[in-house]
Structure formats: C-alpha cells, structure tokens
Fold this protein.
Amino acid sequence: MTDHHARLAALRTQLATDGLDGFIVPLTDEHMSEYVGGYAQRLAWLTGFEGSAGTAVVLADRAAIFIDGRYTIQVREQVSGDDWAYVGVPAESVAGWLAAAAPAGARVGYDPWLHTRAGLADIATVLAEKGGALVAVARNPIDAVWHDRLQPSAAMMRPYDETLAGASSATKRSDIGDWLTEQGADAVVLSALDSIAWALNVRGGDVDHTPVALSYAIVNADGSTDLFVAPEKVDDALRQHLGNAVRLHARADFAPALGRFQGKKVIADPERAVAAIADAIEAGGGTVIARRDPVVLAKAIKNPVEVAGHRAASARDGAALSRFLRWIEAKAPRGGQTELSAAAKLLEFRRAEGLLLDSSFATISATGAHGAIPHYHVNEQSNAPLEPGQLFLIDSGGQYADGTTDVTRVVPVGAPSAEMRDRFTRVLKGHIAIATAVFPDGTCGAQIDGFARRPLWEAGLDFGHGTGHGIGAYLSVHEGPQRIASPNYPGGASLEPLRAGMMLSNEPGYYKPGEYGIRIENLILIEPRDIAGGDPDRRILGFETLTFVPIERDLIDPALLTDAELTWLNSYHADVERILGPLMEGEDRQWLSQKCALVG
C-alpha cells in the first residue's frame, strides 16, 4: 500500500504541474479492450486493484475507485481505504461522484485514447454545470510518473490459417466493403483488436490470454485495407498472407492517417472506437458515422468450421480438466494443496494434451471464502490451503488453435454440508433451465436470464453477475454482443437478439460471503429447433451444450430435481462418457465412468 500511496502523491503533483484539478483513470487501453497488456495497466499501477473492470478518479484532496458487485471484497483487499473511497456501480457513477466532489470550476483531465465519447458525455455535462471542464490531455499524466512502465509487447502478428477460420480474409473484407456501400460510407475504422484479428485472419501475443496483436485497421468500400502495426511485428509470411490488398503502415502512423478523410464519411463504433479517433477524423474534415463495427456480429455467429473446431478443442480440454478433477478429489483431503498448486496442476494437465497455446484467462482457483468472490484472482499473498469442509471452485479455460474454452466446476473437500448440496442443486437446476430453454428467434438474453435464477429465487437467494457471455473462436474468452444478463447486474440488461450460430456460456452461481462459492459453467451453441405442432412461420431456437466435464454428483441432492432435470443430467453424463471416454485410460477412465453413473 505504501508504494501506491506514493504513486498517488506523485500523480497529484503531476496534475498540479499540468494545470489540472483531477484525472480519470479507466481500466482499458486505446482499443477499449477488456484485458490489456502490461504497458496499459495504469489503474493497477496506481491503485493496486487487479480486477478486470474498474475506474478511478483522482482529485487534489480525495480519490475514488469505482467497481461493480463482483469486486466489493477484492477491492478492499487490494486498495487502501485511507487513500481511496470505494464506490459501487451502477448504483453510483463517475459523473454523480464528481457532481458532489469536484470543486467549482474544476478542470478534470482525461486521455482521449482511453475513453469513448459516449462514456464522457455525462461527466462533461456535470463539470460544465459547475463551471468546470473536461480536458483532453496530450500526454497521460500517469505515464509521466510511471518511470518503470513496461513497453508494448514485441510479439509477432501471425497468419491464422483459413482451414481454422472457415473463411478467407479476402471474403471477409469484401463483405465489409459491400456493407460500407450499403451504409453510404467510404471506410470503417476497426480499432477492437479481436475485430482486426478476425477480419484479417491474424493472431498475436500482445495481451495475456488473448491472441491478438496491437494494431489498427481501416477497411475501405472496395475491400482494400490499411493495417497499422509496428514494423518489427511483421515478417514475410505475414506479408504473403495479407496480400496486396492490405497496405501495411507503422502503428504510429495511424493517428495522422485519420486526418486524411476530408469530405468522406467514416464509420467508427461508438462503443469500441475511442474519442481520439472521432476527434482526428473530424479535425481532418471527415464526417464520423457512429455505427457498430460490422465485424462484431459477423464474428459472433460462428461458421461450421469454427463450431467443429470448438467441439474438438472442448473434448481435449474436457479430458484434461477431468483428469485434474480426479487428481484434486484424491489429493485435496490429504492436505498440502493450495489454490496456487491446484491451478498449476490443472495447467500441467492441459499442457500434457500437447496443443494448448495459452490459458484463456487467469484461472480462478478459489477455496472456501475465496470462492464467494466471483472474479477472485489468487496470488502469493492470498494463496489459501484447501481444507476439509470447504468447497473448491475452479474456473478456467484454454486457448487452442481450433477453439477457446471456459468451464467452471466445484468439488467438495471432504463431505459437503446439507446446505452446500441444496445450493449446488439449485444452481444446477438453473443451469439445466438455460440448457433446455427454447425461445423464438429474436429473443434477447435479458428475457431468459431469469430462467437460471428462479430455483434460487424460490429459496430467497440470487447471484450478482450475468448468466452468460459470448466467446470467441481462438479469440477473446468474453465476446459480445450477445449475453444472458438482467438489468440488475454488471453490464446491465442484454438486449442483443440471440441468433443461431452464437456461442455463450451458461454459468449461474451462488456465493455465501465468507464461506463458499458455487458456479456451474458450460459453453452452449444456439441452434434451430423443430417444435412439433408449432407455428410454421415462427423460427424457434435452443441451445446445444458444447462442454463435457462431469458435474460433481456428491454435491447433488436428487430429491430437488424433477424427472425432466434428472433425465437431462443423466443424458449429459452419458454424453460426457461417450465423448471423453476414448481420450482417457486406466484409472482416469474408471473414475469417469463412476462420475457419469446414473443419478436418482
């Protein structure tokens, strides 16, 4: 905490030098990424907070960190309450806090490469009402005092084979060009790293756990593309892969290039393109059209090759996780295991498969009370032993060339209590309700979120996060625009229509503060459903489960399950054994059969 206190003081000194009364520090990078490279970890450097969502505001005499309900415990463990006020969102906001805390006439700075225009609008209004102003800075003041700041990654940008992508980059860029013509626009700026990776069939290694490369792209109406990437990240193989229709430029040339659209219309995504991009286009005489990046939806609807790849990756991943679950079941009750040792062992099992390229996120290895922190991140300071009477939650995933996985399982260390079994079974009932849901085409995630919560609601319980997120194809573990979520939890209601071909997670949970956490997560694919006797003019969709790993039978109370739920569970375990059985041998195979035996 002492280092972070000194860093806060240094920032305040720099703000005074810059003529600023405050500064806004988001947890993002110039691509509005969820996970960012070490060079962009300004919020963590300043405050010590290591969560994946948050914002800080620094004034001369006070400071606040804004986090949602997933991080209320974590932020208190990592960020000093002597220096920072903890502010919960969405109940409160940066704009609301500044309305009360900022002095009259305050000049509050922001880095225009780290915020969208929409994200700044309310803040600007509040400050203007107090006679102040929101001020764009030419240099981020944190960078001025962060003397040992890491440099951006030098990892190469790599071709991604069409046999894995399922479509050529030329086809994708041609489709984007056709879309631009329909929109009456001359070009679109792609600033989201996964959009560039998908559109150009490239991958990289610049962000931990996410195979993307720091770059920008401008796709023109004729399908030709200008790619801005550091020259040292490009080799002859990449040049050959991209072809003549993709013109290469240094990444540093991107901002100047935005000033060359005089008299032209350029699409920039209002959620993904930072304010500096729109500012530069308009300063050069161009017109900005605020419209969603066309890659977002195209990327979300997986093609048959991507789906087949995920199935193959998921089977390998499921076998590795199952071997780990057998190991932890045997080892944990004997003592000597910790959250870190368990996470390391799981990585060892995944690597043994031979095709793992990376984890898809930092493994959530959480025992006892730590399991009640949905996005807990274990480190040397927090590392806890696995002890009898606890529940151990493991949320993890792998990055494979043919797919990205994400799965959560919970196992008891020793005998679980009756309450644990009750809560686990209610979470399972919610999981089954999503897995078996059918719904008309056009239904949004907010409409089915309650299916997962009803069994908990009936016992006066709930969980404080969304039920499902989209997932990429060897890309981001969290991918939009589809989600399953209600208005009451982080991110708000998911109003994006669910479409066939989209992939989501199905992960209801329950968290008892100070005691344990439960989450059951599989990945699911949206597919058409034929309903006998249904309206022939109404398209009905449902979910196919893609993740196959045993669900811990010792935590299930069969008396709480309906006949239909028992049928689903036993059918699921039959599929687990059918798919994973050929990949497992000896005692691992025997254990799998035991875990997949009929329940009820």
